[in-house]
Write a structure and sequence with these properties.
heterotrimer, A alpha/beta, B alpha/beta, C alpha+beta, C: 3-stranded antiparallel beta sheet
């Protein structure tokens, strides 16, 4: 098998509404933060991986050219990895393989987005081809609302129970975000605020849905030799997985979602995990919508199918529970899409390296990071551990 | 465990506009390479694609649209944007990691569905300092050509000779989009688009779906008698603003240096048997040949005049016709590689070089005036 | 039955609102006053026009603007004769990289103020004199094209 690889540094910008800086400056901010965290300079880097959402999002195409200087990539090899919502995870996976293959020793991975410069829903509507789908899918919330309905019907979950579980996720995460200096939306919500919020696409209400955020995340991957030399507490990559299914919405069952289940299988197998609920200490699940987080708990084996609402209401996945999920607040509070899945990786790495500050889960040794994308089409995963 | 990766076989579609839709074209080329190699879709380890959201018929999140048409259903995979040769490199990484025995690498482009490359490349610009003055790839190339001519005395006729060579070579390439027996006068008389660039010196806008099957050493030997081995790779990015760059000293030199070091090549002109170089503007073939060490700085004009880069020369460049004959913008780097693979396997049909071909170089470039370059070396 | 060949057209329009940032705004404000501003890297001493928020080589923050000469030399140029769909400018026009006096990099802008209809004439004109000076639009918008073009002296 390939070489062992670890994360030895990570940086994030203060995510949010960043009209104070141009997009290149925003990228630079995240990159600087990673270099500072790892105490490295560009001279130490063998290659740079970069990616974002499609160019239509910000109106500049092939942004790796535009950001060459901000990325400190001038004179260096580059890769440009993009897989829409899962981009951040695919970026991390690219960095991992570049080092695991032996073709590089230290790789800088950067994901970024400046959503306030474009119209994100209008842009995302262009994901749908004009032949069959474009008029119908009511933006991203529309797609995932249909998913929520299917899930509740499939398992006979009473609507108000599903609503309560999703509400608990929203209340918990928006409050968790106060302990994350980088998070965008931090709010002290009551259950009523969430369940009575404005309907966006039923059953999704305002606080079930992630924001548009501007932000950059940068992560540095290194070989075993370099990691041991340069980093006191590397976060070792224990397993990776990725899976995509078909484009045509309506072809696959997205509730007991084979693509998500398979992604976790790949990563668990490599990491030697057979009982995720017990063996994982923390999970950063990609949760742009509350109900989606519940469904993924089931796909990833954190609970039995159909039992996510019950387990959530018991507190299994809260900060003090058996498997804390998204102690950073998750995507629900912060979503600079090109960076978002990479932020999950950075947060998971911070947890096992003991660097998560006020939202540290004590004694975390094994963490899961997840990315989700497309019209319910892609899943990616990376499992990190504090020991090799 | 072996540290070798091979290309088992390739499949490509022709460059002229097809009446098939995008998804059907892609499906066809993936199926073709899997059938040729006898590897089933289930067996393939993962799919690494090269595609670009902006050259994609206005349908963003490119990989979403084509994932299952590109053999990806319920499979692991990823996508490279910007330069398709990077998808090849990523496939190599995936095999060297030991996680996969086979990787399907696919380059994806349907030029006929897109607005002009001139229009799309306009959006590479910085909205503050470049967009307002209308900069795009062709203007950047023209600025570079003028500087090339002024600095070294390269003649327009020498640049035009590249077109005569490449479109002539393309007559033997059934996949090429443009193929013509032309002479120098035809090129020199063609309409000026942006001085000094003439219409015939600028690449067309073509279709191009290309698929390559990569395998680990053990698997490759099971699948084919003539694996083409990965030998070396390099890439390099230049600074963004044109005004900060030396347009005549591009990062191709750094990219080639990395590839040569990995491949153990000390004298490229002697050790490389064939080169497929991305030359969307004719003069760039001369400039890039200098950059990769086939001749010295400023000697590109003399190089083509010497006949060395003709099909029967000592360093044939673009026997396929290159990008001037066929320009599927997004996948053209992988097309260069596919052509080199066919030459090495002895399967290049009428365009097969007469000499023994053991080591080949494939080059890709994107970004204004070649801001980014990638170089791959493969061989027996 | 022969293969049926059909296509349909579909245009995509998307709105954008870019954050200008401090440095680019300073440059645009300078243009309104018919000043060309640059800034200098305190580490390597290079002077950039238009100004940057960070030096691309040294990666240090840059602020502190300095007014630069409005005269310089054409480094390279091209005469555009054909437009692309959505082009902001109508041909013929000349795009050029111009090295303003005292500046360490080239400015991308237009060259004009004379007859652009014939390529040979244009080539001769520029060959004779590569020195140019900025010519301003009367109406200012805080935009790169407040400089109408650079005219050969």
């Amino acid at each position: 098998m390939g070489r062992a690889v670890a994360i030895i540094g990570m940086g994030q910008t203060k995510h949010g509404r960043r009209y104070d800086v141009t997009y290149p400056d925003l990228v630079r901010e995240g990159v600087q933060a990673a270099f500072e965290d790892a105490s490295l300079t560009p001279a130490d880097i063998d290659g740079v991986v970069f990616g974002t959402m499609p160019s239509m999002m910000e109106g500049v195409a092939m942004t790796h050219f535009y950001f060459a200087d901000a990325l400190r990539a001038v004179g260096k090899p580059m890769m440009k990895t993009e897989t829409c919502g899962t981009t951040g995870m695919s970026l991390a996976i690219t960095g991992y393989y570049w080092v695991a293959s032996g073709l590089a020793d230290i790789v800088l991975v950067v994901g970024s987005e400046k959503m306030h410069e474009g119209d994100s829903q209008a842009t995302m509507s262009t994901v749908l081809e004009p032949f069959y789908l474009r008029p119908f899918l009511a933006g991203a919330p529309g797609v995932f609302s249909m998913l929520a309905q299917s899930w509740m019907e499939r398992y006979d979950i009473p609507e108000d129970k599903g609503r309560e579980a999703a509400g608990k996720i929203s209340v918990d995460h928006h409050k968790d975000a106060f302990d994350n200096p980088y998070a965008h939306i931090k709010k002290d919500l009551s259950m009523e605020d969430v369940t009575n919020g404005k309907v966006i696409t039923y059953p999704y209400r305002l606080w079930d849905i992630c924001p548009n955020s501007d932000g950059t995340c940068a992560v540095i991957f290194a070989s075993e030799e370099k990691a041991k030399k340069l980093c006191a507490r590397p976060a070792w990559v224990k397993g990776v997985g990725f899976c995509g299914d078909e484009y045509w919405y309506g072809d696959s069952d997205k509730v007991a979602w084979e693509c998500a289940i398979d992604t976790a299988k790949q990563a668990y197998k490599q990491a030697g995990i057979t009982n995720p609920l017990k063996e994982l200490d923390v999970a950063e699940v990609y949760n742009p919508f509350t109900y989606v987080e519940l469904i993924h708990y089931e796909c990833f084996g954190f609970c039995e199918p159909g039992k996510a609402a019950e387990a959530t209401l018991k507190g299994t996945f809260s900060r003090g529970g058996e498997l804390p999920c998204d102690p950073s607040g998750g995507v629900l509070c912060t979503n600079p899409i090109g960076a978002t899945a990479l932020v999950r990786v950075a947060e998971a790495a911070m947890q096992v390296a003991g660097k998560a500050g006020d939202h540290q889960i004590d004694g975390a040794k094994t963490a899961l990071a997840h990315g989700l994308g497309g019209v319910s089409q892609f899943n990616g995963m990376m499992i990190l551990g504090s020991s090799l | 465990m072996s540290n070798r990766v091979a290309i088992v076989d390739v499949a490509q579609t022709p460059g002229s506009e097809s009446s098939d839709n995008f998804l059907d074209q892609l499906y066809g080329v993936c199926k073709e390479v899997l059938d040729k190699t006898g590897v089933s879709r289930e067996e393939v380890g993962c799919v690494i694609s090269a595609a670009s959201d902006v050259f994609h018929g206005g349908i963003s999140c490119a990989n979403a649209y084509y994932w299952d048409s590109g053999a990806g259903f319920l499979k692991n995979g990823s996508r490279q944007d910007g330069e398709s040769l990077l998808a090849f490199y990523y496939g190599v990484m995936r095999i060297l990691s030991g996680h996969f025995d086979t990787v399907l690498v696919v380059g994806i482009c349907k030029g006929s569905e897109n607005p002009s490359d001139d229009m799309i490349t306009h959006f590479y610009t910085d909205p503050f300092y470049q967009r307002q003055v209308g900069l795009n790839e062709i203007f950047a190339a023209a600025l570079q050509m003028r500087a090339y001519m002024d600095t070294y005395g390269i003649k327009e006729e020498q640049c035009a000779q590249v077109v005569v060579k490449n479109l002539g070579n393309a007559l033997r390439n059934p996949y090429a989009h443009l193929k013509q027996r032309i002479d120098l006068e035809d090129v020199m008389q063609s309409r000026v688009l942006t001085d000094p660039l003439k219409e015939m010196e600028c690449a067309p806008k073509s279709e191009g779906m290309v698929a390559l099957l990569l395998a680990s050493e053990e698997k490759a030997k099971e699948l084919t008698e003539k694996p083409v081995w990965f030998k070396g790779f390099g890439s390099s990015m230049d600074t963004f603003y044109l005004g900060d760059r030396n347009l005549l000293e591009s990062e191709i030199t750094n990219a080639a240096k990395q590839a040569y070091a990995m491949a153990g090549i000390k004298d490229p002109r002697k050790e490389i048997d064939v080169a497929e170089i991305t030359e969307p503007y004719a003069f760039q073939e001369l400039l890039w040949c200098e950059g990769i060490g086939f001749c010295g700085p400023g000697e590109g004009g003399k190089l083509i005049e010497s006949g060395a880069t003709q099909m029967n020369g000592d360093i044939p460049v673009n026997p396929s016709g290159g990008v001037l004959a066929n320009n599927p913008y997004v996948s053209r780097g992988l097309y260069r590689l596919a052509e080199v693979v066919l030459q090495i396997k002895g399967q290049a049909g009428e365009r097969q070089l007469a000499k023994d071909v053991n080591t080949g170089l494939a080059h890709g470039t994107h970004g204004f005036a070649g801001q980014f370059h990638a170089v791959a070396i493969v061989g027996t | 039955m022969g293969k049926h060949f059909s296509t349909f057209r579909h245009d995509v329009w998307l709105p954008y609102k870019f954050a200008v940032g401090q440095v680019f705004k300073a440059f645009y404000d300078g243009l309104k006053e018919e000043k060309i501003l640059g800034n200098q890297c305190q580490s390597c001493g290079k002077i950039f026009v238009p100004p940057r928020s960070f030096c691309p080589d040294c990666n240090v923050d840059m602020g502190d603007y300095t007014e630069v000469s409005q005269e310089g030399e054409i480094v390279t140029w091209t005469l555009a004769k054909e437009a692309f769909f959505g082009s902001p400018l109508d041909p013929p026009f000349i795009t050029a990289l111009i090295r303003l006096d005292g500046v360490s990099c080239d400015l991308l802008h237009l060259v004009g103020g004379f007859d652009l209809s014939d390529v040979t004439g244009v080539r001769q004109r520029i060959k004779k004199n590569r020195r140019v000076r900025a010519v301003w639009n009367d109406e200012k918008q805080g935009h790169l094209l407040d400089i109408k073009y650079f005219e050969p002296l």
